Amino acid sequence: MRKIISEFRLYLCNHIISHIPSHSIRLFYYRKIMNFKIGKGSTICMNCKFDAAKGLEIGLDSVINSGCRIDTRGNLKIGNNVSISEEVIILTADHDELFDHAQERNKEVVIEDYVWIGTRAMVLPGLHIKYGAVVAASATITKDVESCNVVAGIPAKFIKMRTNNFNYSARYRRLFQ
Predict the structure, then answer these.
(1) CB proximity list for 99: less than 8 A, separation 6 or greater
(2) Cα separations (Å) of 62 from 49, 77, 136, 170, 175?
């Protein structure tokens, strides 16, 4: 019975709640029903899909834009003033392909403060994107990204350093988003 309730809660989240054009209603559901820890000023835009209830922590003034797939089975920690663009995929679980009964492996993903992740980027399980890093659009992150590094490509490679004197808010809230 517990499994049925959990799956129904997730179904409502992904197919009904995520389509409601009200931040307040969505955030209420995410905080109270999905048990996500979401900091003040943070936003999860419409049409985001989640793989599990619980397992998500978001700091202050961060944004997850529309159409993202967020896997929280292995836990996802997002810092303050993080900007995650549209259609980003963040995975926290995979399968061990070497065995016949490919067991699920859950691996936490950590995204520190002031990180930008570009449109359609993919973050694989168990990775750490450190303070101030930038992930270019469509990049695939296969290893940790160091502080203030700008990375791009498939797999993502170092492009350049970003200055680290950050003093901005990533708070982003559009009406009907």
Answers:
(1) none
(2) 17, 12, 18, 6, 16
Q: Which two tokens stand for residue 153?
A: 């490509």
Residues in the chain: 177
Per-residue confidence (pLDDT) for residue 99, from 0 to 100: 66
Give the architecture-level CATH label for domain 2-161: 3 Solenoid (2.160)
Q: Which residue has the tokens 């663009």?
A: 85
The pTM of the full predicted model, rounded to 2 decimals, is: 0.92
Q: Which residues are catalytic?
A: 95
End-to-end CA distance of the chain, in Å? 34
Query: What are the structural domain ranges in the chain?
Result: 2-161
Do the Cβ atoms of 108 and 126 come closer than 8 Å? Answer: yes
pLDDT in tens, 45-79: 999 999 998 999 999 999 999 999 999 999 999 99
For the chain, give me the number of helices (H) and strands (E)?
A: 2, 19
